[in-house]
Amino acid sequence: MTYCVGIRLNAGLVFLSDSRTNAGLDAISTFRKMIVYEKPGDRFMVLLSAGNLSISQSVREILQVEQVPQGEGEPLTIWNAKSMFDATRVLGSAVRRVHEHDAAALHSAGVDFNANMIFGGQIRGEAMRLFHVYSAGNFIEATRETCFFQIGESKYGKPILDRVLTPTTPLEEAAKCALVSMDSTLKSNLSVGLPLDLLVYEEGKLQSNNIAVIDDQNPYFRMIRDTWGQRLREVFEAIDDPHWDGSDTAHPLLAPSGRFEPMKKIGHPRDRVI
């Protein structure tokens, strides 16, 4: 299992991935889930992967040389694609190529063909774009209404992203939000682990050196973990406790419902709930 998140904002892109891979409780390894394809001034693309590690590594290797026929013209690759949509088509083709080669053997061994990827970036002359690519090689694109994608163990880190992120969120704030999202996931799931890879891309730059590797000694991430945990406790403690004695309170728990009756108790064999 893993956890990766990609965010598309007006100001740029944010990518964050963990590095834990496990094949059982005693077979835990570290493999990076992020790879960057960059030709400064021409194109900048980032791939995040989750799922079966052998599939993901094969796709990453093939993607660099994958060619999609274009009639009598030059085959399409990630290096000559004129749009991120076309580059993502190449990625989908690479996924299907691995499926054709390995899916039957994996199935015979009782292993599902499982791969999910986030692919985003910018090609000169086009706006930034972000895609979620599935095991079949098909994909969907992020929109202003849904400006981020998660893959892997996503449920623990989603609430903070839903509450904070909008297309106008500044890059620094989005990076902070992604790290809080990762911290929540690390806290609740042992299949996600350090070190992390964080990348921030500024719109129109067509390259980025804003890349950080984060381990358990990273000062900023340790501050995030300590501060977020402490502030959550402070907010929780500031919320009123429920009152069961009917005493006067601004927020009564035992307020009558206009539609539903209180739950009935069963106290005799002939009693019925309905």
Describe the structure concisely.
With 274 residues, the chain is of the alpha+beta class. It is built from five helices and twelve strands.
Report on this structure.
This protein is globular. It has a five-stranded antiparallel sheet, with helices on one face. A five-stranded antiparallel sheet has the order 5-6-7-8-9, with helices on one face. Helix 1 packs across helix 2 (84-108) and helix 3 (158-164) runs antiparallel to helix 4 (171-188). It is built from five helices and twelve strands. A hairpin with an 8-residue loop joins strand 11 and strand 12 (211-214). It has helices at residues 53-63, 84-108, 158-164, 171-188, 219-238, and strands at 3-8, 12-17, 20-22, 28-30, 34-39, 43-51, 115-123, 129-133, 139-141, 148-152, 196-202, 211-214. It is 30% helix and 24% strand. It has 274 residues and is an alpha+beta fold.
Mean of pLDDT: 95
Biggest sheet strand line-up: 10-1-2-11-12
Radius of gyration: 24 Å
Kindly name the structural category.
alpha+beta
Terminus-to-terminus distance = 45 Å
What is the element string, with H for helices and E for strands?
EEEEEEHHEEEEHHEEH
Count of alpha and pi helical runs: 5
Described by strand count, sense and barrel closure, the largest sheet is:
5 strands, antiparallel
Cα shape: globular
Low-confidence stretches: none
Q: What is the number of beta strands?
A: 12
The level of helicity is 25-40%
Q: Beta-strand percentage?
A: 15-25%
